[in-house]
Specification:
By secondary structure, the protein is α/β, with parallel strands linked by helices. The protein is built from 15 helices and 12 strands. It binds guanosine-5'-triphosphate (GTP) and magnesium ion.
Length: 451
């Protein structure tokens, strides 16, 4: 564990916006001294009790009234002495209280520093620290539930089980090597069984990465097509309200429009774009350029045409231009009929919908989920992130190699031990049992101030 900085840090724990209540958090060895200097009740503060009083500046002028709470080390979030001042959520008052705490010797906390201290004091492991940021940033309930599972230690406990299995084998080999007369020889079969168990579990965890990424980062969907086919109508139908202007005038949508919503708990950013055609109008042309940019950025492109008219040459030209994106092809306005003969080459690939009657919209959602590889309804408790994925892959590679060549190592158990130790190093990295300042810097700097 790294040596902790001994200083006391302060920051707003709530957003700096006008609100009912705002919390200023102070953590470190002088937290109580600084906190009570800014409060009317100065002495005999019992931990975990809320005191109502005046919040004061250093000269004793009243800044606000509010609550003071004291959490005595190590029974606090950071594991240090922590004082929370609950103020009214007035931005200037919160700023003033922080400034006063700094004048009294505290330092403005770096992003994520409270959580980092909690980690360094062993209150949480690194997976749980990451889960806090994930929970705060979750865009859907499904995403927040997934983050909470990590915070509760559901991934950590699985990693710890793997780590312990490897430690056990490592220990047995070490004992055999050190005390060959006293200790029974460990069978290769036993090592093999453990390696297989660990590898299977690692494989299972690796499979959760893609879903976890989609859950935390969301999916970008762009709707494209020629003017008047009903792109904005589809956009509105999917997001659930009349967000975009719809009209029978071609070229209604000029600039792109973005809106966030969710499909089956996965956050989605939906983008409506200007209808693509050979436009004369300067502004429309700019909109069409933007539409092309949005197509490139999108994870999935939804190409819309008017099914009652069939696929026109203009449609086919646009379709040709987006074919690299493997678009979902949507035939809209089926309430007006389907011009089957003009669609025949593509018929089986088309999702037919009517934004007017809402027919077919569920099929479109299914197709989106299918394209993302999410249709199998596997709902795991835990999802790994990129950092976990990298570490698990390294561990997997070492163990797989060992597993396949185990027979060659029959008389070189120390090599088996070294490999297992190295693989375990990567599992310990996930938990943060082994870490570098670089890794911590990367994780915690992505937090916001005060967390
Ligand atoms: N009958 C019928 N009309 C529809 C349907 N969807 C859209 N429309 C009509 O088609 C016209 C064009 O709809 P928009 O959603 O504005 O089309 P757009 O593709 O966004 O058009 P631009 O923004 O000009 O590119 C409007 O008059 C809509 O009411 C549908 O499913 N059935
Ligand atoms: Mg439109």
């Amino acid at each position: 564990m790294l040596p902790l900085k001994e200083d006391t840090i302060v920051a707003n724990a709530t957003a700096l916006v006008p609100s009912g209540v705002a919390i200023v958090r102070i953590s470190g060895k002088d937290a109580l001294k600084i906190g009570t200097s800014l409060f009317s009740k100065k002495a005999n503060i019992t931990p975990r009790k809320a005191y109502f009083g005046k919040v004061l500046d250093r000269q004793g002028n009243v800044l606000d009234e509010g609550l003071l709470l004291y959490f005595k080390a190590p029974h606090s979030f950071t594991g240090e002495d922590v004082v929370e001042l609950h103020l009214h959520g007035s931005v200037p008052v919160v700023k003033k209280v922080i400034e006063e705490a700094i004048n009294l010797g505290a330092r403005l906390a770096e992003p994520g520093e409270f959580t980092k201290r909690a980690f360094l004091h062993g209150k949480i492991d690194l997976v749980q620290a990451e889960a806090i940021a994930q929970l705060i940033e979750a865009k859907t309930e499904k995403a927040s539930r997934a983050a909470l599972n990590l915070l509760e230690g559901k991934l950590s406990s699985q990693i710890k089980q793997l780590r312990d299995k490897l430690i056990e084998v490592e220990g047995l080999i070490e004992a055999e090597l050190n005390f060959p007369e006293d200790v029974e020889e460990i069978e290769l079969q036993q090592i093999q069984t453990t390696l297989k168990e660990v590898l299977d579990k690692i494989e299972e965890l690796l499979k959760t990465y893609k879903r976890g990424k989609l859950l935390s980062e969301g999916i970008k969907l762009a709707i494209v097509g020629r003017p008047n086919v009903g792109k904005s109508s589809l956009f509105n139908a999917l997001v659930g309200y009349e967000r975009a202007i719809v009209s029978d005038i071609k070229g209604t949508t000029r600039d792109f429009i973005e809106e966030e919503f969710s499909i089956r708990g996965y956050p989605v950013k939906l983008i409506d774009t200007a209808g693509i055609r050979e436009a004369e109008d300067k502004i429309e042309k700019l909109g069409i350029e933007k539409a092309k940019e949005k197509i490139n950025e999108a994870d999935i492109v939804i190409f819309v045409f008017d099914a009652s008219e069939g696929l026109t040459d203009e449609d086919l030209k646009i379709l040709e231009n987006v074919k690299d994106k493997n678009p979902i092809i949507v035939g809209n306005k089926i309430d007006l009929g389907i011009a089957e003969s003009k669609i025949k080459d593509y018929y089986n690939d088309v999702i037919f919908v009517s934004t007017k009657t809402k027919e077919g919209l569920k099929n479109l959602e299914d197709e989106i989920i299918n394209r993302l590889g999410l249709l199998d309804n596997i709902d795991t408790d835990v999802y790994i992130n990129l950092r976990h994925q990298e570490a698990l892959q390294k561990a997997k590679q070492i163990l797989e190699n060992l597993y396949q060549n185990l027979d060659y190592y029959e008389n070189q158990k120390e090599l088996i031990m070294l490999d297992i130790r190295e693989a375990n190093y990567h599992l310990k990295e996930i938990l943060g049992e082994i870490h570098t300042e670089d890794v911590l810097g990367k994780i915690f700097s992505s937090f916001c101030i005060g967390k």
